Amino acid sequence: MGGFLLSFLSCHMRTSLRRLTVGALVLLGAAGTATAQTGATKIDSLAIRKIYDEALARGQSYENLRELTGTIGGRLSGSPEAEKAVQWGKITLEKMGVDRVYLQEVMVPHWVRGAKEKATVKGNKGKGLTLNVCALGGSVGTNGKLRAQVVEVRSMQELAALPDEKVKGKFVFFNRPMNPLYVETGRAYGEAGDQRRSGAIEAAKRGAVGALVRSLTLAHDDFPHTGTMAYDNQVTKVPGAALSTNSADELSQLLKADAGLTVELEMACQTLPEVKSYNVVGEIKGSKYPDEIITVGGHLDSWDLAQGAHDDGTGCVQSIEVLRLLKATGLRPERTVRAVLFMNEENGTRGGNKYAELAKAANEKHIAAMESDGGGFTPRGFNVEAPEATVRRLQQWQPLFHSYGSADFSAGHAGTDIGPLKGQAKALIGYECDSQRYFDIHHTAADTFDKVNRRELELGGASMASLVYLISKYGL
């Protein structure tokens, strides 16, 4: 999930709609009318059971992910690894024997991290302390060692209230933690994300030399979390770095004892000229309505600190698996189904924008677009961005998913890469899985293949394929 903040406002809507949905589900189940209202029948229930049986007995998502993460690893846009991932995606889809596989050219940013970042606290009392740090994506480097005092703040408003002399020439240390009281971790991520996204801009406006940002996670550990940050061309570009939560807590305590301490930061990151890359697209033509399209996708790029397993290798292999499950079960879709491996979600959304641009230019008719970018954890259901009537229509299928634990169909943020299709597709749908562990590893060196559970991953692919099957059969 990347580099752009989740729409946490939608979480409030989802909470209310979820309450309504539970009540509605009980009533619909008692009346036995949910499937009749959409034309769904016992045949559909059996078809979905067939999809799940295939996924759980012979699913290929896990092994595809093992290959992607093990042979290629991290796949930052513009890197040689990202190019290898494009070829891997193309070959994997071709081997499945889908009707068509092709690439969509797109120019992407090329930011490189360089040598491992270093940060040390230098105090007047005692010896220095090493901090766990990483550059935020897109940051400028420090041009050698950058040493300055530190001013700690918990919000943009707190920074704005400080006099200039308290900020000028210092690092601004944004130390607002994610709110642990929210059950929905995406909401906490969204609310805390402004400090990562625009902290360096606001710090530079006040004359600071750089921004240090508490990592966006509820975990207390030594893993710094990277992620995209922004610059304003009208404001001096200063380095932006993330501290692990443990290091942020340590720095905060040290500042209480010695407000005059300094931090020495060294980062060699830089932005290089843009690079040509590609979205990877595979499709099965619809048997009755080939001009009506259902897109399902994840983003092929990842950050460079680890293997990009949950973010978003899982979304890519699940999208590929949707096509395989439809083929393997003989459930030929009536509408065209496309699996899209989007490039550059993490630091630019160039792939998502290009896909929507080409779809509009070709006057394509998108029925729905689905995205998986929340990890490969236990399925819970789907978030839907669509008119209220369309949301209700999708919710009528909930009883078919109840026994699989993925019957939560709520209004909410669907995804970054499919977002540009808003206005073209009737519904944008985000695959929703259990989020409690996601931000422990999100954008860190811990996002590795061993953190993915085979059964949870395959269940997610089956959930996605089942909803695609229904939309393909009945439309929206």
Q: Work out the helix count.
A: 15
What class, by secondary structure content? alpha/beta
The residue fraction in helices comes out at 25-40%
Strand order, biggest sheet? 1-10-12-11-13-16-14-15
| SS strand fraction | 15-25%
Describe it.
Helix 10 (309-328) crosses helix 15 (454-474). Helices cover 38% and strands 23% of the residues. The strands form 2 sheets. An 8-stranded mixed β-sheet has the order 1-10-12-11-13-16-14-15, sandwiched between helices. The two termini are 27 Å apart. Helix 10 links the parallel strand 11 (289-299) and strand 12 (335-342). With 476 residues, the protein is of the alpha/beta class. The radius of gyration is 23 Å and the shape is elongated. The protein has 2 domains: 9-108 and 273-474, Aminopeptidase (3-Layer(aba) Sandwich); 114-268, Glucose Oxidase, domain 1.
Task: Provide key terms for this protein.
single chain, 476 residues, alpha/beta, Aminopeptidase, Glucose Oxidase, domain 1, 2 domains, 8-stranded mixed β-sheet, 15 helices, elongated, protease, carboxypeptidase
Could you give the topology of this structure?
Elements: H1 9-31, H2 34-38, H3 42-58, H4 61-71, H5 80-96, E1 100-112, E2 118-122, E3 129-130, E4 133-135, E5 145-153, H6 156-161, E6 171-174, H7 185-192, H8 194-205, E7 210-214, E8 240-243, H9 245-257, E9 262-266, E10 270-284, E11 289-299, H10 309-328, E12 335-342, H11 350-361, E13 365-371, E14 379-385, H12 388-395, H13 398-402, E15 408-411, E16 427-433, H14 438-441, H15 454-474
Parallel strand pairs: 5-6, 6-7, 7-8, 11-12, 11-13, 13-16, 14-15
Antiparallel strand pairs: 1-10, 2-3, 2-9, 4-8, 5-9, 10-12, 14-16
Helix pairs in contact: 3-15, 4-10, 10-15
